[in-house]
Amino acid sequence: MSDFAIAVDLGGTNLRIAAISTDGRLLEKVTLSTKVDLSPDHVVGEMCDAIQHLCGRYRDGGALIGAGIGIPGIIDLEAGVVRKSANLPNWSGYPVREAIERRLGTRICMDNDAKLAALGEQWLGAARGVDSMAMITLGTGIGGAIVLDGKIFHGMNGMAGEFGHITIEPDGVRCGCGNRGCAERYASATGLVRMAREAIDSGEAPELAKAASCDAEFSAKSIYDLAIQGDKGAQLIFQRFGRALGMMLADIVNVLNLNIYVIGGGVVSAWDAFAPTMFEELHERSVVYAATVPEDLSGKKVGAAHNMDASTRKKTIVARAILGSDAGLYGGARLAAL
Ligand SMILES: [Zn+2]
């Protein structure tokens, strides 16, 4: 029997709602599909029905301490309004907090989904036991978040941590943000596929060309499968990816000097293919990293407070996220409890 929080991860595809105890146990998780074609009011209505249903099941065991909701895109946290979301195109200007609070009759907390994933990893994941950390989420783009002393650092208006738009190629590929050569044009799932297609077009990756021609869903996973089978063309793409990520990390490490940087997102399952180049580049380009490099580069020893020892405490650790897609739910529950 314990008190619990409700956490919501409102994605462009899935709407996930969980009851999580204050000591970090996932009591139950419900996954609905997000009906992006319908009005935000309709989606919020379904969300609130599911929240009320979950609350009803756990209310006898403990008190509901609050609800934390993660939303992709730019959120006006003061007003509780979605400003812009690529995954939820109908939601621009929608007063999401007020709409949910009106239906539930209780106050809720909300934040950007990548920021909540960082809070989740800090509370219970790869940075457990460390108060300050940053997280980089490699997906369609690159999400970023900074947690300082156990709290999300927002900057002036919630835009702190835009790591993906660090320039790594002065005259590089045009980015959706208007800049050229942003890290996310190279070190994201989209960047990986783009670089593979370029290599195919230039004739330097025959095996990739073969894979792409018979695979309608040619993706980061297809490139990874070839890389682990030893295909040089595919391996080279992951090295470019790792190099871009290492360059971006070098800037972040130089600026923030934190104990731990957690890398999450779907592409992280290809860690073995890009991490060696990433660490090499990071070591070469960051004076702060070079001065604080841990003996065990992979950061395997880190993962919880009890195994942070003298060899990792004052070192710069770059580690894989461990909570997967549930990180944002844990972060939402944590936010509600703070
Ligand atoms: Zn950009």
What's a quick, concise take on this entry?
This protein is an alpha/beta fold and 338 residues long. It has eleven helices and twelve strands.
Description:
By secondary structure, the protein is α/β, with parallel strands linked by helices. The chain has 11 helices and 12 strands. It has helices at residues 40-58, 96-104, 113-124, 189-201, 206-214, 220-228, 232-256, 271-285, 287-292, 310-313, 327-337; strands spanning 4-10, 14-21, 26-33, 64-71, 74-76, 81-84, 109-112, 133-138, 142-148, 151-152, 260-264, 317-320. It has a 5-stranded mixed beta sheet, sandwiched between helices. Strands 10-9-8-11-12 form a 5-stranded mixed beta sheet, covered by helices on one side. Strands 5-6 form a two-stranded antiparallel sheet. A hairpin with a 4-residue loop joins strand 2 and strand 3. Helix 6 (220-228) crosses helix 7. It is globular and about 60 Å long. The two termini are 20 Å apart. The structure holds zinc ion. Zinc ion (ZN) binds at residues 165, 175, 177, 179, 182.
State the distance separating the first and last CA atoms.
Answer: 20 Å
Which ions and ligands are bound to the chains? zinc ion
Helix content: 25-40%
Number of strands: 12
**Secondary-structure element string:** EEEHEEEHEHEEEHHHHEHHHEH
Low-confidence stretches: 299-306
